[in-house]
Design a protein that fits this description.
alpha+beta; Immunoglobulin-like; 2 domains; five-stranded antiparallel sheet; 17 strands; flagellum
């Protein structure tokens, strides 16, 4: 099998091709385009020994190698852009630590009242607040007034306060017996930290609770 000669001398950083020749470094190869690579192959064909030509499998290996390297470099570039974007958002969220956010994600209840943002459907004459525990099971259902605004929820039942833990809330609005809407209720909790995760920026909240940035609908001073 004859060696493959690149159109320009290969540097010390060049990688050996399966056919015995050399290829440009991955960063240089991926930095160009596929048309440039095809021109290189054409040059190799013109300079090969006609009595000992390259086999078709060698072309296939080179094409596959180039395609794989190009795809890997593009993937790395994309991941780098995503990381930079996330870190930029994380830096902006540093100012959120110590403040309160309103979120529909589960929040921690430890016996102290939680502030809930109540927004019943227009025209509702009866409103129920439904409380779910960390497993999504209904823990409490109570009638509240049809008014709109913030309320302090004490988490009390006929048998006393609910156990400490994570809870989420939803509001069911009625007109007579007709259900007008069922919607998540936002609760306020203090931000204690933030981290970048595979799902996006996640805010740490008291009691082991957390919320993704996209689950936050309001921010205020604690």
């Amino acid at each position: 099998m004859s060696s493959i000669t690149a159109p320009a001398p290969a540097s010390a950083a060049s990688a050996a091709l399966p056919g015995g020749g050399t290829a440009t470094p991955a960063s240089t190869m991926a930095g160009g385009d596929f048309e440039t690579f095809l021109k290189m192959l054409t040059t190799q064909i013109r300079n090969q020994d006609p009595l000992n030509p390259m086999e078709g499998s060698d072309f296939a290996v080179q094409l596959a190698t180039f395609s794989g390297v190009e795809q890997q470099v593009r993937t790395n570039q994309l991941l780098e852009q995503v990381a930079i974007g996330q870190m930029g958002g994380l830096g902006a969220l540093a100012g959120w630590i110590g403040k309160e956010v309103r979120t529909t994600a589960p929040v921690s209840f430890d016996g102290e009242p939680l502030t809930l943002d109540i927004r019943p459907a227009s025209g509702a004459d009866r409103v129920e607040l439904v409380v779910m525990d960390a497993r999504g099971r209904e823990a409490l259902r109570e009638d509240i007034g049809p008014g709109t605004g913030e309320i302090d929820w004490a988490g009390r039942t006929e048998d006393g306060p609910l156990a400490d833990g994570l809870y989420s809330f939803k509001l069911v609005s009625y007109r007579g017996e007709e259900v007008l809407s069922t919607q998540a209720v936002g609760a306020y909790a203090r931000v204690t930290g933030a981290e970048v995760t595979a799902d996006g920026i996640r805010l740490s909240l008291p009691g082991g609770a957390s919320a993704l940035e996209r689950e936050v609908t309001a921010l205020r001073e604690a």
